[in-house]
UniProtKB/TrEMBL annotation:
This is DUF4595 domain-containing protein. It comes from the Bacteria. It comes from Chitinophaga oryziterrae.
Amino acid sequence: MFSNPKFLRSIALLIIIFVAACGKDKNDHSVDISTKPNRVYYGFYPNNIAFYTWSDSIYYLSDGRIDKIISKRLDYLYDSIYSQFGYNTNGRVETLTMRSRGGFYNEDYDFHYDALGRMDSMHVLEYGSLTDTINGKFFYDKNGRISEVKMFAIPKDTPVVFAHVYYFRDAAGILDSSRVVREINAFSYTESSATITYNNAKSQQKAFIDHDYLLFLALRDNPHLFSSSGEQNISDQLLNPDQLILKSYSRSWRNSGNTANNAVVTPFTADYYYYPNQFVKTLSIYFSSNERLRLVLRFEYPGYKLD
């Protein structure tokens, strides 16, 4: 039977089909990386003097998840950050390690998720420290949308809430505003608060920035998430992926000596620019009153480079 040429050809054909099918199944898990930005320029300008600018080189796994990010500080040439991502079996970020040559970024992050795949809690450990730890807890409403975040410091055995975030929505469930209350001195209960009102974010358009890169941006801007007066809307976008909220907004800030009536309100305007294929090229957020830049993100892709 095995000397029959027709039979042998049939067996060979079946082997070829089987091998091709296996190869196709394996490749089905890959992602077209050319659709993802491989370099992002980030600039944050909190006031007229200080500014922070970074160049992020993003490296991907074959399935499109981020493997690592190598960041170089452009306004301070001696600083850089190496960030390594780790994932759980469901493909969600489980660990993130950030190390910087300048020493400011030396955190180990662990993230935990609930049965629905939502972020449930996070743990931050300063590298080389067994005592300086931060925990975060995330809360959701009955419709599964983020409603609160609490960030805890752990001095000895007594957790202290040093940042409490509240999310407010309209009748349709669209995010209307977020409010962060920070304990300036957790033991004397002095506080500051910042409220962002998302005036122009009522559309159902989803966030365009990769979730894992948003997580990285939020933690680089604010290593303990919501603990300082960084760009709160980056963290808000991370936790509200089904709504594009990186748009025009107003920010109301007050410290413990001010009432809500005399809080400082600052409006911001957002502009988007696109490549010919409609990939986002630049997102600029600036002060509406004088058009001074507040935040800029500039994206490069394998086939599209900045001018």
